[in-house]
Every structure is written in structure tokens, then in C-alpha cells.
Amino acid sequence: MKTSLLNWLAWAALCTCALAKQPNILFIITDDQDGHMGSVEHMPLLKKHIIDQGTSYENHFCTIAICCPSRVNLWTGRAAHNTNVTDVGPPYGGYPKIVKEGINDDYLPVWMQSAGYSTYYTGKLWNAHTINNYNQPFVKGYNGSDFLLDPFTYDYWHARMSRNGEAPRDYSGQYSPDVVADKAYGFLEEAIEGDAPFFVTVAPIAPHSNIVANPPSGPLNELEVLAPGPVNKFAIPEYAPRHAHLFKDYKIPRTENFNPEQASGASWVAQLPRLNDTMIDYNDEFQRARLRSLQSVDEMIERLINLLEEKGVLEDTFVFFTTDNGFHASQHRMHPGKECGYDTDIHIPLVIRGPGIAAGATKNIVTSHTDMAPTLMSLAGASRDDFDGSAIPLLEDHESTEVSRGEHVNVEFWGIGLPEGKFGIAEPFGGLSYPNNTYKALRLVGHNYSLYYSVWCTGEREFYDLHRDPGQMHNFFADPQLAKDYTIAGRSWQQLIYRLDALLVVLKTCKGNTCVKPWNSHHKNGSVETLTEALNPRFDNYYMKHPKVGFSSCELGYIKEAEGNRERISHAGVQWQTGLEAPTPEGQQPFQYRGSWSDWV
């Protein structure tokens, strides 16, 4: 029996004991909320109602740092390389791509309905879900819905929304996060009055950058997904006038990676010039506005929690709070934005309260958005066999029976870097964009290490030890002196990199349980589950000769042919799993490939 199934069975058994019936679920997801510039700390009602009453997951990550692919990953439990949704708009992403890939028929809300839940959603669902294609086809899986629609999704004062598949309605003059809050309150009230357990998702746009739709003079239906024109910028987020007085003295934390004197990173990041004082002042105000926009979300949280309490269902309801991806602003000399693999962009908030969950607690287990759908399905008493993640242990007493979780997160991205704000407006608006922002990466958090390793489509690589270097400023590949005396578990940096290369080879195309237990692809008997165990010297010969990750070209989407010979790696993986254990000095010989290493990458 697979370990992932055992894990689910143990988790489901605990749920059955702790929960007399299927619990209700309220899921709140913000847009581009950072985990390192104080955004959570500046939400006192979130703290009062969810953080202080629930558990914070300190090592939670998104796997792709851009909204639409990250949300698909969250709502399917599958890695982006398996959903094949890797961008915010066609041809590689957005609602048309989601429909084409069959996701509209086969994702979490559809499954939750099959499990007996009434499902509701309001706010932003998908990018490129527009006033023109909102019914081509209608979004499936919801008993009640009210979706923000492009090109008005990020226009804080001119929202257009479609309720239950009806024609879009204009909310110009009303503040979008407040509109979503009102709709969330109504849906939650309706859900509480129903006979079935409910799954209600609320997705305001705060604190995303403001994008004005800039409609042309012609009919409304002539609008593009993002209407061109100089006014359509990734500008400072808008906030409700009642919050304008807040955070006037706030400044982005001046950490080591804040506009550093020496460039850092790789690829285009390593070429960035320092920000000048005008840009830094602007970025500080940019983040102040982001914090102000989140105050509407904070107030909404209190309204929704109070409603659950007034109706007597709070103790039967799990409340999730997270975001789709993180955000950077001035770190590594970058203009505001996301799309990078650094912790600024992938290390994000996750807080959960509910029956059986410890109040005011933290957990340091490694979790990712790939685990969210399995977790929510587990709460519903259901499961599937095609998840690339595993259910997160939630209950306070689950620690005693918890099956060991992995210490890894698979991170990936395809396309370009899009700087935001007036000093970094993305194409096609006459500003900057950074090509070759395609990479595969690993984030590992173990008992004695916290590591990041990436391979870019340009051939460049990065390695950071975040215990020593939390700002990810000192790339070992750029400064060999850093690696000279570096060891983990008594092993050299080079031996460590051999293992990380082999792990990334598996994860970059993994599917199902292979994503959860990737070391099993190298050690078929399950004897190795952590990096430390893989560093055993008896495996050196095997890992030294293992294929490496590489790219033949930098593409804007997931093009299999550009990411190495998948067929050969797949066959080799089968041979490693079925006929070749990583050898001991006295044991079998390692797998021998007699072609060119370029054939593997």
C-alpha cells in the first residue's frame, strides 16, 4: 500500500474520531500577499480571530509564483507541469487554457459537491475569465458564485461581476474588496441556512496592484483581457478612504537583501542596477498602500467570523487564510512584483482554525499549495489517487500518529519577469520586462538546514543556505569560496549538489506519489526519505553520475522538448526503481549511460 494512502487513512481516522459530521469550510485567499514585509502583522482582526484561535504553518510555500497557475495548483492538488497551466493568459494559461485542459470539469469544487457539500465562491477565480467569455462555458462546481471578471478584475473602483452565470454587472464607484466582502457575507448566510455542509471561498483582489481597464469609446464587449493604453498600469493598489490615515510611517524592512550594494541572484536579477532614492520612496508608499488595501479584508474576516458565531456554527467550521503567491518590493534591487523563486515570492502565509486545531500554535512541517486540495478533501471525508501532494495534518493530537512528511517543495516557473509600479511597467505598456525567467527549483527545510537550489533555462544555477543567509544574497555558484568549507551532515557542498540535482530531476516531471516521496525513485526500498539520509557516503558513486536538470532553450510555457529528454529520464527512472538501488561500495554498479550528458538535459 502506498505511503500516501497510509497517510490519508491515518488522517481520515483521526478526522472521524474528532469530527462527528462533515465540517463546514470557509476559505479566504488574498492576492499577492507577502509573508516578509509585515502584511500579516498589520492585520489585527486576522490575528484576533484566526491566528490566535488557530495554527500558523511557518513553512508554507506556493510552487509557482504567479496567480493563475498557483490557483490551479491549489484547486487541483497537481503541480503546474501536470496541469499545464503556467501563465495568466493564453496560450499557456488563463480561463481558456483551464477549459481546454479539462480543469473546469475536474477540480476541487466539483469534487466537494460530489462529497455532499454546498459550494460558493466570490471574488477572483481565474485570469482571462472575462466579460466576454464568462459563459463559454460557465464555471462549474458552485451552487452560488459571483466572479470578478477581466479586464476589470484589478480595477479597485470599476469592478464587473457575474452572479450565478448572469450577465456582468457594473460596480463602478464601489470599492471592490468591500463589494466582495458583502457578497461573501450573503453567500455565507445562505450556506449556513442550508441543509448541507458548506465550502465557501472568498477571494478579494487586495493587495494586488491596481490595473485600470481603460475602456475604449466603442461597445463594452470590444474590451480586451487587458485593454492597452498608458493608463493600464500595474499601479499602486487602491484603498478605501477610511484607511487612508494608516501606516504613514511604515517602511519596508531594511534587510540585507533590500536594495543591496552588490547585485545578487542570477539571470536578469543579477544585472539589475540599484534603486535610487525616488524609487525606494515610491516602493515604501507602494507597500503602505498594499497594507491599507488589506484592512478591508481584515474587517471582512471579523464580519464573517462573527456571522459564524452568531449562527452557532463557528465551532463546526474550519477557516483557512492564505494567498496565491508572495511579493517583492526592493529586495534584490527589484521593482515591485513576483514570479521569482526566492522566499519573498514563494514563502507565504497559511493559518487555519477549526475543531481540533490548536489555538495560537505554530507548526514547522513543510507544506505547499499542492497539499491544499488533498487537505480539503480529507476534511470532507473523501480522497483521490491523482494528487501530487498530501493532506496536511491539522488536528492537535495528530502529531502522535503523523506519518513523516517530506522536507521538500518543488518550485517552477516559465516565462518572463514583469516588474510593477510606475518605474517597472510591464510590456506591452512601454516599460520593462525580463526574459528568460524560466527555472526549476527546490526548497528544502530539514531539522538542520534550510536550502534553496535552482537551475535556470540560461544554464545558471543558485544555491543558498537560508540559515546563514535568510535574504538569499550569497549564491555559492557565484562565489566558490562560500563552498570551500561548507558541509551538511559532514558532507561537502559538491556531494550535496549531486543529491539536489538528482532530486530535482525527479521532481521536475513527478506525478502522484513520486512528488510526495521523490527519494523512492532513487532508493526503491524506501530507506531514504531525507537529504541527510541521501548524503550517506555509500551512495556517492551513484549520485555523482546521475543525470542533471537542464534546458535546451528558454520558453514562455511548458514545452517538454525544451526541458530535457523526458523519455530517457523516465526509462532510467523505471530502471532505478525496479532494477537498481543506489549502490554500496560492495554492491551493484551505478546506472551507466554511454551517450552524451547533453542528451539528458
TrEMBL record:
Give the first-level EC class, as a single word.
hydrolase
| Enzyme Commission number(s) | 3.1.6.1
- Superkingdom of origin organism: Eukaryota
User: Keyword annotations for this protein?
Assistant: Glycoprotein, Hydrolase, Signal
MF terms (GO), sorted A to Z:
arylsulfatase activity; glycosaminoglycan binding; N-acetylglucosamine-6-sulfatase activity
The annotated region (Disordered) lies at 580-601
Domain annotation Sulfatase N-terminal: ranges = 23-382
Q: What chemistry does it catalyse, as a reaction equation?
A: an aryl sulfate + H2O = a phenol + sulfate + H(+)
**What does the sequence similarity comment in the record state about its family?**
Belongs to the sulfatase family.
Protein name (record): Arylsulfatase
Q: Please name the source species.
A: Aureobasidium pullulans EXF-150
